[in-house]
Design a protein that fits this description.
By secondary structure, this protein is α/β, with parallel strands linked by helices. The protein folds into 2 domains: 9-134, translation initiation factor eif-2b, domain 1 (Four Helix Bundle (Hemerythrin (Met), subunit A)); 136-330, 3-Layer(aba) Sandwich (Rossmann fold), CATH 3.40.50.10470. The chain has 10 helices and 15 strands. The chain has helices at 36-44, 51-65, 73-85, 92-106, 114-139, 167-176, 193-205, 217-222, 248-257, 289-292; strands spanning 9-12, 15-19, 30-33, 148-152, 180-186, 209-212, 228-231, 235-236, 242-245, 262-265, 293-294, 297-298, 311-314, 321-324, 327-330. A 7-stranded mixed beta sheet has the order 6-5-4-7-10-14-15. A 3-stranded antiparallel beta sheet has the order 1-2-3, covered by helices on one side. Strands 8-9-13 form a 3-stranded antiparallel beta sheet, covered by helices on one side. Helix 7 (193-205) links the parallel strand 5 and strand 6 (209-212). Helix 1 runs antiparallel to helix 2 (51-65), helix 2 (51-65) runs antiparallel to helix 5 (114-139) and helix 4 (92-106) runs antiparallel to helix 5. The chain starts with 8 loop residues before the first strand and ends in a 6-residue tail after the last strand. The structure holds 5-S-methyl-1-O-phosphono-5-thio-D-ribulose (MRU). 5-S-methyl-1-O-phosphono-5-thio-D-ribulose binds at residues 46, 49-52, 91, 154, 156, 160-161, 166, 193, 231-234, 244-245, 310.
Length: 336
């Protein structure tokens, strides 16, 4: 077993240190920055990714934006707020934390301590996320009826959160408690968060796993090789409709067809209390080059049309349970 000694982000000496997730698993390179623009770029390029982690990084970015500003602190704050809000549209955690920091900033009488106060809030948000991950992992233990083979999609571990993960942490704590025997990790086209990141994390934790193409899930299920499916979420509506990485909806339908419980795990900060259903979730469409290329190698002509949603929405009735730090909710959901 390799050492479980990596981290997604760390804040030290007025700098955000983050692992460049685009290089994993072949290279573990950490980047250090005190610049909010660099953090915004990292979120856009998916060097930093995963709904809760995007929120954590953006919070540090917004605090850093006002650090050395002497002239027009308000303008600097507003510029950074707008820039960070425009990085990625689907994960609600980003908007949730930016709003918290904005309220804090708006309440200031003067801007003398603006950096310290915003930084404090960012740190609180980070440690709350860590705590939520731990609780989600423990709450998730109740979904296992027996030692199980779990299928998961995308990446929901340390690399996607400020703590030990959401769906991933349920798998990890489940494994440590003898409740998970094996994991199938979808490769997660087009950016391969499964084969590059989830496999990396499963390997670091010593959890037995196999990688598979996304399209192998149906066969696995038909062969009775999957007991449970657990994924994360980027935004959950009040009725439980859940947006997550493209391909999650396919898995939910396949699970329904094969009578396999399908669960979502996410912190309460992923619940968008302003929207009633998944129809209102803004889905991010990514650049066509992500489909026309694999690992920098072009595989189809650039003039081809593409369909590039980064997320889909799984209707609530296909989700057996939504696991948060508060407990396990069951359909019908009403998060009001
Ligand atoms: O595009 P990504 O890699 O940011 O997408 C991430 C996911 O879809 C995750 O499943 C989700 O953010 C939950 S992470 C705990």
């Amino acid at each position: 077993m390799t050492q479980n000694n990596y981290f997604s982000v760390k804040f030290e000496n007025d700098k955000l240190i983050f692992i460049d997730q685009t290089l994993l698993p072949l290279e573990e390179k950490y980047i250090e920055t005190g610049n909010y623009e660099r953090i915004a770029e990292a979120i856009e390029r998916l060097e930093i990714r995963g709904a809760p982690l995007i929120g954590v990084a953006a919070a540090y970015g917004l605090a850093l934006a006002v650090k050395d500003e002497k002239d027009d602190v308000k303008k600097k704050f507003d510029d950074a707020y707008n820039r960070l809000s425009q990085t990625r549209p689907t994960a609600v955690n980003l908007f949730h934390v930016l709003e918290i920091l904005k309220n804090e900033f708006t309440a200031l009488n003067d801007y003398k301590n603006a950096y310290d106060i915003l930084l404090q809030k960012a740190k609180e948000f980070h440690s709350k996320d860590e705590e939520y991950c731990m609780k989600i992992g423990k709450n998730g233990l109740s979904i296992f009826r027996k030692k199980s083979i779990v299928l998961t999609h995308c990446n929901t571990g340390k690399l996607a959160t400020g703590g030990d993960g959401t769906a991933f942490n349920i798998i990890k704590i489940g494994f440590e408690n003898g409740l998970v025997s094996f994991v199938y990790a979808d490769e997660t086209r087009p950016l391969l968060q499964g084969s590059r990141l989830t496999a990396f994390e499963l390997d670091k934790c010593g959890i037995p796993f196999a990688l598979q193409t996304d399209s192998s899930a149906a066969v696995l299920m038909k062969q009775n090789k999957v007991d449970l499916v657990i994924t994360g979420a980027d935004r959950i509506a009040l009725n439980g409709d859940s947006a997550n990485k493209i391909g999650t909806y396919n898995l939910a339908i396949l699970s329904y067809f094969h009578n396999i419980p399908f669960y979502i795990a996410a912190p309460s900060t992923t619940i968008d209390r302003t929207i009633v259903s998944g129809d209102e979730i803004k889905i991010e469409y990514r650049d066509k080059t992500e489909i026309l290329n694999i690992n920098g190698n072009q595989i189809a002509p650039s003039n081809y049309e593409t369909f590039t949603p980064a997320f889909d929405v799984t209707p609530a009735h296909l989700i057996k349970g939504i696991i948060t730090e508060e407990g396990v909710y069951q359909f019908p959901y009403n998060f009001l």
